[in-house]
Amino acid sequence: MVSQDFLKELPKCEHHLHLEGTLEPDLLFPLARRNGITLPTEFPQTVGELETRYGQFKDLQDFLDYYYVGTSVLIKEQDFHDLAWAYFQKVHAQGLVHAEVFYDPQSHTTRGIPIEVVTRGFETACQRAEQELGITSKLIMCLLRHMDPQEGLQTIEDASRLLSSGSVHGIGLDSAERPFPPELFVECYERARSINPELQFTAHAGEEGPAKYVSNSLDLLQVSRIDHGVNSVHDEELLQRLAQEKIMLTVCPLSNVKLQVVSRVSQIPLQKLLDANVPFSLNSDDPAYFGGYILDNYYKVAEEFPHWNHEVWSTICRNSIEGSWCDAKRKNELL
Ligand code: HPA
Ligand code: ZN
């Protein structure tokens, strides 16, 4: 097995990280108090109780029910900034050099917080991460698939200026995967593309949903990568396509175990993806909820795939840089 020092030193990129998913229990309660938010009565009342509950998610929906309560304590621009800045500081110490990070504007705008406030808080943290830590980053705005696609469309309209100005670099799709297939969001993606043809596109697919959600995200939403995508391995033709078109899967090992997509990391079909030449990156998804940040995910995979040598890890790292949405100059710096 490669050493932990080797994994730590690798120039790591993260492509699947929900900024709201970095809200640690020990920040959630103070923020709720600071902002006068009353948490639901059935919600755990202490950091310890909450951490215990986080260790017992049944599935994606069970996690999302906690995740959306968590987002409700974020109110002010400073809250969003502090949250993202805490993430960047943590992963800086883990050898992260580039991050493409998700946020869910609808989970804030539905509570009356303007999209500009949320975005500015996150964007200023991204700028600070580059200046003070040398970490480059991109913001990806996700639409919530459990909400009416018409509301997604309105969110795209409301974000027009942010999408045109470069504040937001890409569009994604998250929240409960089933029964909300990608085809529901075709109009949203088309509208975003018409606002700014330079935008990048991705979507969560094939986490709990079938391989068909992956191919339909490619065909109908015209995404250039897929978040999770592990169920793609059930469709050989799709695997060949992912390899041929160099569609990167942003795999989240600890998340897959915590949400019971698999029972242990060794069951994630990473070897099959490698053998089929399907590029993937390793990511933390919602690290405050799933028990580990980027390097913890690398460590766990190395432990469960002990036969992977330096060459395999260098391939993963190179694919992860090449699959990033930064420009060629930055990629060359990282390679
Ligand atoms: N899947 C879908 N939606 C999400 C996730 C996830 O892993 N994390 C935050 N929103
Ligand atoms: Zn995710």
Automatic annotation (TrEMBL):
A Pfam family: A_deaminase
Cofactor(s) the record lists: Zn(2+)
UniProt main location, coarse: cytoplasm
Gene this chain is encoded by: AAH1
KW Transferase (keyword) present: no
Catalytic residues identified in the record: E207
Catalytic activity line of the entry: adenine + H2O + H(+) = hypoxanthine + NH4(+)
Protein name: Adenine deaminase
Residues under site feature: Important for catalytic activity: H228
GO terms, molecular function: adenine deaminase activity; zinc ion binding
